Amino acid sequence: MPTGDVLALSHNDSFEVVVLPHLDAAHNLARWLMRDAEAAEDVLQDAIVRALTYFPTFKGINPRGWLLQIVRNAAYGSMKVNRGMQMVPIAMSEEDYSGATADIPSGDDDPEASLIKARDHCYVRQLIAALPIELRETLVLRELEELSYKEIAEVTRTPIGTVMSRLWRARRLVTQMAAQKGWKG
Amino acid sequence: MIVPEPCEMVLLVQAEFDGELDAAQAATLQVHRAQCPVCQAAALELTQARELFRELPYRTTPDAVRERVLAGLDAARPKPALSPAMSLLSSRFHSWRHSTMGFGLGAACAAAVAFLVLSPAEQSLTEQVIAGHVRALQPGHLEDVPSTDQHTVKPWFDGRIDFAPPVKDLAPNGFPLQGGRLDYIGGRPVAALIYQRDKHIIDLFAWPAASGLKLAPEFTERNGYNVLHWVDNNTELWAVSDVAPDQLHKFVSDWERSP
Description:
Helix content of chain A is 64%, strand content 0%. Chain A has 185 residues and is an all-alpha fold. In chain A, helix 8 packs across helix 9.
């Protein structure tokens, strides 16, 4: 399980080497928090510039957690500024959701199998996106970014006990929603 | 799968599932789970949930987004002449103000302050203040100057430390001053003021802040210790204790209100 990423910085460890490898994780978290491709890119841009600014004070422990914390701050800041926008109902970006409906058609034909698979993924993403933000971020950091409880607690500034109960609620909600729609694993 | 009745052990089942239990805890849980249908169902449900998530392909950043973000990063890079950290900071604030990110300068500053608190450097400060607190609780280590009189404690720091720590007695609020001592946090000597609440000790660490920015109290819990960190009057303040969080919040708000 990829956790920690603990490393000691030497003088020639540049921002590019230490921080930019975690751009995917940063972008992913931004997308899950913002639920909008454009807003997520703005947040990512903002976070990367902030990270560069604070890089001189970064002590070299867990750059991924450090960057994700900045992304989260940037995302929450942006939501505060654009509070009106956040009231818009969930809309997945085009890249996430290309017209497939939440009702998964049944069919076992090989040519359709991959399409069904793609729609399943899309559907699971919708379920995650529908979670309240504090459950969503906890679930995404654990299941998709595979952070440890301690790392999630640090990124979300939340006691570990709360992380555990949020994670539990998030998982139950998603499986229950999936079961309600008759989605089978 | 519907879990019929709640069982407080399900979070431990989940922790084991996530690889967060050590062998001894896992063994204890094993004994419980063998006779708890709720926890057995929970384990199954967790496996089903993970199947849903782990099948999702990991989304990498599209090249176009990556290029735009890196271009934005280059645009934000400091001019080579500005090397010291503080001028770097101020130039960054400046470029934020002119950026197209829709952040007001105030929001950027607030975010910057928030971030300063959240950085791993500061997390290790949290650990350091807790360590300082725990160390001081060893017999005979608590106070260098045991006194309930702020006018005895405050002058004691003269000549021992390069600033005058704010010393207040909160006995009327139920947090009597017990004394002070020198500690060493974040690579510098700091003042530690000792307060008591019932049987609990509250350490208040103080040292000069790096900037004039204020910071509202930020709460952290670590290993059973509660920590409140705030910045006021150009002073970094860290209250650490094992008192309940609401007591610590009260301590800080009483301290802030006290003249």
